[in-house]
Amino acid sequence: MPTPKILKRLVTQLMDKGHDKSAAFAIATKSLQKSGNLKEGTQRATKKGKKQGKKTPALRAKERASKISKRKPSEYKYNKKTNTVKLKKK
Asked: pTM of this prediction?
């Protein structure tokens, strides 16, 4: 069974922050199961997880910010080094 894209991405981010591979997998798995992206007790993606895995990191970050602020995702600029977004300057 291949590892879901969303899990691979989160593991990579956690390893970049200094976690070893096994800790990164454990943290990512638990977090993604809690958010409904992985099926409980497994590393298999749910429909939501498959859909999220197809999105780019930039799109996911913009959607997170727009959900909180009630603004459009197109109003944000993505920083790939920090996986964060800021409002575009007018």
From this structure: 0.78
Residue 79's DSSP bridge partners are: 84
* Integer Cα distance of 28 and 30 in angstroms: 6
| Residues 37/44, Cβ–Cβ less than 8 Å | no
Which residues of the chain, if any, have pLDDT below 50? none
Q: Kindly list the domain boundaries of the chain, sorted by start residue.
A: 1-54, 56-90
Residue 77: per-residue pLDDT: 96
> Which residues fall within 8 angstroms of residue 31, CB to CB, at 6 or more apart?
10
Task: Please tell me the distance from the alpha carbon of residue 35 to that of residue 88, in angstroms, as a whole number.
Answer: 28
Mean residue pLDDT of the chain comes to: 93
